[in-house]
Amino acid sequence: MPLLEDEMADKPYSDFRSDTVTRPTPEMRRAMAEAEVGDDVLGDDPTVQRLEDLAARTMGKEAGLFMPSGTMGNSVAVKAWTRELEEVIVEARAHIYNMESTSMTFVSRVTPRPLASKRGAMDPEEVERNVRQAAVHTPRTSLVCLENTHNNCSGTVLPLDNMKAVRAVADRHGLRVHLDGARIFNASTASGVPVKDYAAQADSVMFCLSKALSAPVGSMLVGPRDFIDYSRRLRKMLGGGMRQVGVLAAAGLIALRDMTGRLGDDHRRARALAEAIAPLPGVTLDPSDVETNIVLFTFKHPRLGAADLIRELKDRGVWALAVLGGVRLVTHKDVDDADVARAAAAFKEILA
Ligand code: TLP
């Protein structure tokens, strides 16, 4: 297939596993081919610098840092904000706690303190009750991590008021706040709250270019300049110093400039898909809980397990993913209304 043609024109399957599966747009591929580059470890890559500036300005922070992945962005942020013998308050289903291969304990040697929540939003009073002072037996709490949208709560939007209340608790106790905003533009699209207003509740924000925004690789970490300077050293220590990485930053610039405006389509399709499958036997799902692009449901069926359902779907050209005891389908740039119709028909054929 020619390089710049629409790769998704004639697809043999509909891939709902994640919004990470999106292919770069033809504009991205062109920009990548033509990117002005330099050695970014030596501070010479102008395209990376443009992206880091734009990311920081977009979020209302002093500085930005291009990261190879969201996981590294979160790991570096936790490492930069904490010291050993400290504790981090996280929501119990948070990605940073459940799906980043224990990076918090492995890289930062801190203890996570997971708290239950209502659809991703921790109760600020509960957060306050769990703040601990250093003592001979106990770690000191130094950081709170938030996630917006909340992946494992079906892409729910963390309400701005909830974030403000947690921020107030953090301020009362001298804690830092890190926001895993992998899908912060989805949150903003769904709620109408500007991303800067969410970012203002956190000291640092990680957001992904490689998910709903369709860049092939990359995430951004933004925050105060001294935090970013230190994070740059931590990124190098973890092996994330990249050389002529302007070829990737070029796609990231397009992701940030051009790809945030279309997310409402993904949200509409996710809701339509949820409405089609919610009534089917075995599916526990309230379509009104689907606020953005993630449809996540528990599946209990007399004849089929979740793995059987995923296999049966795949046989019909519909790819879904098993996550944290549930089944997940995610909408994104490379699935359209026809893909949603194909998924709905496959579900009905298997379950109705
Ligand atoms: N999430 C991935 C998988 O890990 C499940 C996905 O397909 O949703 N924070 C959040 C909220 C995320 O959803 C993810 C990726 C990350 C961080 C990590 O980003 P990457 O995959 O770039 O390391």
Notable traits:
352 residues, alpha/beta, Aspartate Aminotransferase, domain 1, Aspartate Aminotransferase, domain 2, four-stranded antiparallel beta sheet, 13 strands, 41% helix, globular, binds ligand TLP
Task: Explain the overall architecture.
- The protein is α/β, with parallel strands linked by helices and 352 residues long.
- The chain has two domains: 110 residues, Aspartate Aminotransferase, domain 1 (Alpha-Beta Complex); 233 residues, Aspartate Aminotransferase, domain 2 (3-Layer(aba) Sandwich), CATH 3.40.640.10.
- The protein contains 14 helices and 13 strands.
- Strands 2-8-7-6-5-3-4 form a seven-stranded mixed sheet, sandwiched between helices. The chain has a four-stranded antiparallel sheet with strand order 9-10-13-12. It has a two-stranded parallel sheet with strand order 1-11.
- A hairpin with a 2-residue loop joins β12 and β13.
- α1 runs antiparallel to α11, α2 runs parallel beside α11 and α3 packs across α10.
- The chain starts with 13 loop residues before the first strand and ends with a helix.
- Ligand TLP binds next to α3.
